[in-house]
Amino acid sequence: MIWYIVRRLLQGIPVFFGSTFIIFTMVFAMPGNPVLRMFGDRTPSPQQIAALEEKFHLDQPFLSRYFLYLGDVLQGDLGTTYAGQSVNEILARTFPTTLRLALLAVLIQLIIGVLAGLISGLRKGGIFDNATLLITLVIISMPVFVFAFVAQWIFGINLGWFRPTVGAGAPWSDLILPAIVLAGLNMAYVVRLTRASVIETNQNDFVRMAYGKGLSRGRVIPVHVLRNSMIPVTTNLAADFGILIVGATVTEGIFNVPGVGNELFKAINRHDTPEIVSIVTILVIVYVLVNIAIDLLYGVLDPRIRYVK
Amino acid sequence: MSSKNPVRTAPHFVAEVDEGGLGAVDAVRVSDRKSNLWLDAWRDLRSRWMFWVSAVVIAFIVFVAFFPGVFTDVPPNSNCILSIQNEQQAEEFGLPIGTRVSDHGPIPGHPLGFTKQGCDVFSRIVHGTSTSLSVGVIVTVLVAFMGIVIGAFAGYFGGWIDSLLMRLGDIFFAIPYILAAVVIMSMFLHDRNIWVISLAIGFFSWPSTARILRSEVLRVRNLDYVMASEAIGLSKVRTMFTHVLPNSIAPVIIISTVGLAGAITAEATLSFLGVGLPNNLFMSWGNDISAAQTSLRTAPFTLIYPSIALSITVLAFIMLGETVRDALDPKARATR
Fold first, then answer.
1. Interface A:B, Cβ pairs < 8 A
2. In angstroms, what CA-CA distances link B162 with A153, B149, B152, B217, B218?
């Protein structure tokens, strides 16, 4: 196990440097002056230019610029927005809200998704199964912002069950609707994975054996079928997380959730490129770390994976 | 088993086989159908209603994209007026002078009403089709090309080439492609067009295609016919293109069809976020939905109609992808 952890962490190192380097390259290897490009339509004041040139160490050669910038990021200096706010403070303020939203979303997606997948997998070809397949197909084909608006319009504005936008302090009750939207993205995949996995597990000898030795359905399904069907769902959590990051940006923007995604959403709308770059860099770093963490978790859950290659 | 085998007439030394039941079996000409993966898949596809529904919808979408003029003669972006100003406009729209056209509901000739800027919703949807479709197709071709080249080289040559390319794939895979596209598009504020946005989306989505093709190539390259091809002296590259690639391409086709839907969604999402195509030069459903969000309470249809168009397009490609997957991948059929 120790070797598995070490190997996985070592594999993470090139990915970490590579992904941050690529983002850095995308910003600074474009033709033209990167600082002027960042301002787009605006004409920056000489102080702003100087501040950005200093922040990104433009007087240095390209490679050392990257390491200096990465050093700054790792030491927690993410620069400032155009308005002069510190990106660190913004992230510190908004991160807990995003974390709560994401947790709620993952919870909803796992509970409803696994339950629906289990039922439709056990009753393959039944009404519930076909209805679920149809609903997941519709949800998968709706881009997240369309889904968000439809939910906001129906449940927030027409029916009035939820507040259409999140109020001050982002209480849990206001986060439910955005969390459902965010969960909806991955829920369809969780349902389908669970369903396929349940069908496959159900055909195994150990399931027949369990029934054969007289166990009840109430025991076989949760202990023997569901537990073995959860492995692919766990693996998929890493991919889910990438969708979650992008989904959070859109969902938080639409429901005005005061989270990291909303800050990115606003920064994009303001063309605040330095802030965009900082937030995206942080999100990618978080994504890489979460991926490693999920892989480690997977190694704990399924011992077979530790010994492969 | 070829159908051209003649009935066996060779002399028998032990017993007269023809007299018994065995001989009868032997004598049957099996006119077996010509069969390979693609023919089988096509037969399977033909029998599915989902395939035909999605194919018809996609054919219709392609037709709209190429000939928007057939469906509407209202220009999508010019002639937008906020309110009726004079007699001539009153005549043209059939509304009294002073009426606000902005966010106005449907009137004859304008079946889906008007946007906040007073443009015709229907016309904008019709003209936006080609944008979505072109980005989808360009991204798909780009991703398939990069994925195939990289995956094939990695899988077939193995060794350090494999390690290098796959680690590179890991790195690109570690960046959610929409976030990467957001950064690229914010650096291109003034020269955004269909090619730039397609590159921004496609450049970060090739690793999954490459991985799938690589594992398929790894499977195929150990098969007997590949060894035979190398044994008769074909070069490695030639073997790869004539024997290995055609036999490992099926999963790429599956992932590309679904990927086309993903690319359309990505374009709309980027446009929605405000880093997509410029609003004044391109009709894009994402832009329209984004512009309509302030009218969600007062004129929800300006947001709902482009959303429906977008969802139907994405749905059609996802449905096509799923039927193609079921047809090409017998394993997927088992759990269907």
1. 139
2. 50, 12, 9, 12, 11
**Closest by Cβ to B186, choosing from A18, A145, A268:** A268
Task: Show the low-confidence residues of chain A (pLDDT under 50).
Answer: 309
What ipTM is given for this predicted complex? 0.82
Instruction: For residue B179, list chain A residues with Cβ-Cβ distance below 8 A.
Output: 245-246, 280, 283-284
Q: Quote the pLDDT of residue A309.
A: 47
Stretches where chain B sits below pLDDT 70 are 1-35, 78-79, 81, 83, 85, 87-96, 98-99, 101-103, 105, 108-109, 330-336
pLDDT of res. B55: 92
Per-residue pLDDT at B313 = 92
pTM for this predicted structure: 0.82
Chain A contacts of B172, Cβ < 8 Å? 19, 22
Residues of B in contact with A146 (CB under 8 A): 289, 307, 310-311
Could you tell me if B314 lies within 8 Å of chain A, comparing CB atoms? yes
**Tens of pLDDT along A235-250?**
777 777 778 888 888 8
Per-residue pLDDT, B56: 93
Instruction: Tell me how close the Cα of A253 comes to any Cα of chain B, in angstroms.
Output: 9
A149 contact residues in B (CB cutoff 8 A): 289, 293, 296, 303, 307
